[in-house]
Amino acid sequence: MHILPTLTLTLLLAATMPASAPAQQNSTWWRTLPDGRRLFTECPLDTTRPRILVIYATPNGNSIEQTLGSRPENKAAWRFDIQHVAAQVRRARQLRADVSIALSVIEAPERSWPACLSKLPDAPATTMRLVQYLRAQTEADEVILCGHSGGG
Question: Concatenated DSSP letters for 23-52?
């Protein structure tokens, strides 16, 4: 398992693969956990290649939808134009056609990781159980943990 401060998958997973890789069919699902954390997961249906799961914690103040990729409505909302995690993963999938890359994005209740984690009685163990759950759901061989600006 790797812990990374930012999601720079284009650099992390770069390989010499043409940008014309075929489109993948994906399974997409949403969950809300009892503690209020929201989950978005997009997982390629192809199970013939090794699978990497990227788990990305949203920045404080951002929703999953904004983190996946959102144009700012005005100049004051510039911070919503810096994530585009979905686009980064699509590009990584093109560059690394030898693996199957799944993405899970986790949003804290009230969009605050410090507030969320302070309310969990055993935050490290709870977080590890969530990682294990997502890994099992996506059948991932490898997990990469990512976050940005206070994410998770």
Answer: PPPEEEEEEE-TTS-EEEEEEES--SS-EE
| pTM of the complete model beyond 0.85 | no
Please write the tens of the pLDDT for every residue from 6-36.
Answer: 333 333 333 333 444 455 688 999 999 999 9
Q: How far apart are CA 42 and CA 11, in angstroms?
A: 21
Cross-strand pairs, 96: none
| CA dist., res. 125 & res. 138, Å (int) | 20
**Could you say which DSSP state residue 50 is in?**
-
What letter does residue 150 receive in the DSSP assignment? T
Enumerate the domain spans of the chain.
2-17+28-147
pLDDT digits (tens, 9 = 90+) for 70-82: 777 777 666 666 6
